[in-house]
Each structure stands twice: as structure tokens, then as C-alpha cells.
Amino acid sequence: MELIYLLFILVLAGFLGFELIHKVPATLHTPLMSGANAISGVTLIGAMVSAGSDNTQLTTILGVAAVIFATVNVVGGYMVTDRMLSMFKSKQKNKEAK
Amino acid sequence: MDMLILVNISYVIAAILFIVGLKLLSHPATAKKGNLTSALGMFIAIVMTLLHKDIISYELIFAGILIGGVLGAWMAKRVEMTAMPELVSLFNGFGGLASLLLGLSTLTISNSDSLTITTMVIAYISILIGGVTFSGSLIAWAKLGGRMASKALIFPGQRWLNGLIIITAIALPFVIATQPFNLQWFYIAIALALVFGILATIPIGGADMPVVISLLNSYSGLAATAAGLAIQNNILIVAGLLVGASGIILTQIMCKAMNRSLMNILLSGFAKPIEAG
């Protein structure tokens, strides 16, 4: 049953992913990649549960390490995407000025 | 029970914000807003997860978030504009590493009776994909930053070595099924994944690296999904698949824009090296 449920989400996510981004202009390729990359840091959510739950010491250590790396991915990912987009905006203005 | 519903509702909201965020991010006029929308979704999910019934101590979580947050912010602030793609690759590698660690941590829980073979195999998959993402991203980071030669690197027997790794990786779950609770198989999986990530990335020239990073980004989404299945967390499954799906489509679009064939780039470890300037 769970496999079917997963297959459902997989198919829907596939179509959704295509619909969402298939018309993206070339200039936005890198920021979009970076923004999607920040979302993949969602592992942080699971890592938090692993790090904070009552388990073996090894589970906690691995969980905390996962929290640290995932947070770097999330925070850094969103911030660098934001900087990229600011740069992109000023570039656009330059082009228009020319 | 009420708390769990509340946490899951916040995950639904986060998923919506991720989707809307990606949509806005793919249009020039709204891109910046899209990134913030997606960040808001992540923030909500993180804060609400603190209410999760399994979390009994917060110190280590906060310490981890503080360390990771400061490090990530510092790296994102400090980076030169031209070095941004390689930083994205590095962040992506960390995301993959986090999924690897999370997959491994599900195997070490104190109540190991609740571990089924299915969970173990799923954790194995998250370790495998996470490991490939991590080492592959590190190579992409090094190649883009000139920390290693950016030209395609290929050595005799590489094809055979790749084939051997893939066969071993496919065979390992069967071994795990017959000998569960033996962590050494998972350590072998980590080693295989790390080596394969390196081998898959070194034969690809520096000019093709953006495509590789995009592909590895898609992988890190899938790694998050696998980790989410192992710990049964819906937001990891949904958001991971969303990144996995949009990542592979973006990779395809980027290939087209650069006039490259995705298959060619993917299989470069099995064929003649591709020289792309």
C-alpha cells in the first residue's frame, strides 16, 4: 500500500515539476537550481527529530551532524539564491539602460 | 495526537509554499519573492517540527542549527559572485551528506525491533544516493573552483570499476536482507557511494559542471525522499520528490540550452571522455 502511495506522489511530483519550471528562461537556470537545492535541505526536519529523540548515543550524534550539514544547506542555499537574484535584477536594469 | 496533526498540517502548508515558491522562482519578475516564499515554508516546517512528540531534548537541535546556520550564512555572504555556482554545489553536497547521516541514524535507534527489512533497504538507498551526491558535489565544487584540473579525467579500467560498483550496489540489499542488523554492510555502502560519486564526476569536463550540479541537486532531493521514507516523514518525501522531479527537468532544459545530450554526460564514465572546451 505504501508503495502505491509513494508512486502516486512520484507521478504527481513529476508532472508538477515539469509544469512549474518548463518555461524557465536561461538566465534563471542557476538561481532556480540554487533555490531547489535549498529546498532539498528539508532533510533538516527529519534530522531534528533524530537528534532530539530519546535514542542511542550514536543516533543522536548522527542526527546532530545531519542537522548541522542540512542547516548549512538550507540557510546558505536560500541566502546565496537571494544574492544571485539581486545580482540578476541589477543586470537586467543594466541591459535595459543599454 | 493533536500535536502530531498540527505538525502535519504545517507540513502541508510548507509543501504548498515550496510549490508556489518554485513557480514564482521560474519567472524573472517574481523570482526573488519565490525564493522568500519557499524559505518561509521551510521556516514554518522547522518551527512546527519542534512540537513533534518524539523530540524530548532541544539543546542539541538548537546547537546544531546555530552552528550550521552561522556557517551557511557566513559562506553565502562571503562568496564572490563568480564563485556562486561552486558554492551551490558545496551546499548540495552537504544536503546529500545530511541524508546519508540521517539514513544511517535510523539504523542505530535503540528500539531496533521496529526496524523492518524494508526500512533498512530504504535507509540503504538514502545512504547510497546521499553519498553519491556528497562526493560528486565535492568534485564538481573542486573542478569549478580550479581546486582540481577541470578537464575530463579518465583512466584505464574505469568502465569496469564503475560496472563492478553498480553490481555490488544492486547486490548489497539482498545481503542486508539475509543479515539484517549488521551495520558493516552499510559502511560498505557508504564507501561504494562515495567512490562512485567521484568516479561518475571526474570524467566530465568543467564546462559541463553546471549540468552535473543540477543533476546532483535532483539526486539530493531523492536522497531526502528516501530518508523521509525511512523515518516516515511526509514533508521529506514530498519536498524531496518535488526537488528530484524539477531538478531532473531543469537538468534536461539546461542540457538543451547548452546543446549537450544528457545521456552523453551521464554515461561519460562508460564511454570516451567528452571534451567540452
From TrEMBL, chain A:
Coiled coil: none annotated. It is a multi-pass membrane protein. The chain crosses the membrane at residues 6-22, 34-52, 58-81. It catalyses: NAD(+) + NADPH + H(+)(in) = NADH + NADP(+) + H(+)(out). It holds the Pfam family PNTB_4TM. Its EC number is 7.1.1.1. Residues 7-89 form the NAD(P) transhydrogenase alpha subunit C-terminal domain. Signal peptide: none annotated. GO terms for molecular function: NADP binding; proton-translocating NAD(P)+ transhydrogenase activity. GO terms for biological process: NADPH regeneration. It is found in: Cell inner membrane. One of its GO terms (cellular component) is plasma membrane. Keywords: Cell inner membrane, Cell membrane, Membrane, NAD, NADP, Translocase, Transmembrane, Transmembrane helix. The transhydrogenation between NADH and NADP is coupled to respiration and ATP hydrolysis and functions as a proton pump across the membrane. This is proton-translocating NAD(P)(+) transhydrogenase. It comes from Planctobacterium marinum.
